[in-house]
Write a structure and sequence with these properties.
- By secondary structure, the protein is mostly helical.
- The chain contains eight helices and no strands.
- Helix 1 crosses helix 3.
- The longest helix has 19 residues.
- It is elongated.
């Protein structure tokens, strides 16, 4: 199978994951599971259904040429993630969606600060964070702001 034919389903999967992660109110898990079982495999989707899934990703791809390498690398990493790690990432995305803007900024700042740390360093940081007073946390956030995001 040529690269282009393999890329489209992967990009569609990413678009679907993005669409699911950005939904405002998701149905309960039991309803999601029932709905998922009633949907056909990719090959049985109509051209309209495929376009519905791929369209937003196509728009993002075309609108941001500078992001294409990052998007493709993200797709490769997602493909290689074990199922349990994919589910953990989905849970994290759902938790992030439910946060207030202030909580999201705090999460971005902490993520940005800790992303290059080893697991042990990250654990130490989070233990220090838990011991901080609200004033100390506010000061830390003031001196370590979240990076700008789109």
């Amino acid at each position: 199978m040529d690269t282009k034919k393999r890329l489209v389903p992967r990009l569609a999967a990413i678009a679907l994951a993005f669409a699911v992660s950005t939904a405002v109110a998701a149905p309960p898990p039991a309803a999601q599971e029932a709905a998922a079982k009633s949907l056909p495999a990719w090959e049985q989707l109509s051209p309209e259904q495929r376009e519905l899934l791929i369209g937003p990703l196509r728009e993002r791809w075309n609108a941001a040429p500078g992001e294409r390498v990052r998007m493709l690398e993200h797709a490769r990493r997602w493909r290689d993630l074990p199922p349990d790690e994919r589910e953990r990432a989905r849970r994290g995305a759902r938790r992030f969606e439910q946060m207030s803007p202030e909580q999201r900024d705090r999460a971005r700042a902490i993520f940005h600060q800790t992303r290059g740390m080893s697991e042990e360093q990250r654990r130490d940081f989070m233990q220090r964070w838990e011991r901080m007073t609200p004033a100390q946390r506010s000061e830390w956030l003031r001196t370590h702001p979240a990076p700008a995001h789109p």
